[in-house]
Amino acid sequence: MWPTIATTVAMVCVVWVSVNGQVPIPKRPLGFVYGHGDPADPVLLKAYIDPMCPDCKVAFPTLLQVADHYGPSRVRLTVHLFPLPYHRVAFLASKGTHIIDKATQRNKTYDWLTAMFNNQSSFSNDATSDMTENQVIQKLSTFAEALGVDATHFIKMMSDRDLELDTRLGWKYTCTRGIAWTPGYMLNDVLVNADPTWTVSDWESVIDPLLSGSHGMGMHRKENSCPPGQKECNFLPGKTQCCTAGENCIPNVGCRC
What we know:
By secondary structure, the protein is of the alpha+beta class. The protein folds into 2 domains: 167 residues, Glutaredoxin (3-Layer(aba) Sandwich), CATH 3.40.30; 43 residues, no CATH class. The chain is built from 9 helices and 9 strands. The strands form 3 sheets. The protein has a 5-stranded mixed β-sheet with strand order 1-3-2-4-5, with helices on both faces. The longest helix is centred in the first third of the chain and has 17 residues. The two termini are 40 Å apart.
């Protein structure tokens, strides 16, 4: 039986980490931060995305809504790019993100990502199957120009060695986080099994207890559907357990002593 695509990516990540386990130290923290918050933000939301991933396209607007809802001083959103190898344009679009980030001093980075998601169909494997890499880059440059970045400069920077290495480093870093799929999520550097269709309300149910200092005691519903002596624990949206005496309801985990 052939391995699934996610399994294949995971195998590639594992092999790379095993053979070359030390990731180069970057010149600045990796990822693209949304907004400008206090470095001591209480909650760090990290999203690992592929600009050509349909599920990421679904999840991305909600991530921005969550970040706007809380504000950068309470929740800081950082996007890490993980271009999957079976999306032909993903690596070029990710490299383009680095170009826009640098050329606009981080002011248009998320506008670029939004543009990539909004025009994802025109960069799909089918849509670009007859295009050369240079033609794809030329097409990407038109979106860069719409954000105020000179198209000629954009095309030239696509050959920049440092930006190439930065894009590769982001991919390698994601492998070290144990991510082999997109979108992937972490809250305060812990994996969250979130669905791309989560709403702002769904994210609130996980983030609010972290901001309030609660350990999940507020995760119980008013109506308890568990057996007598047990309490209902909604540890993630759509996921429920019944906690016995002595157990606490812990967000993202479930019932634990």
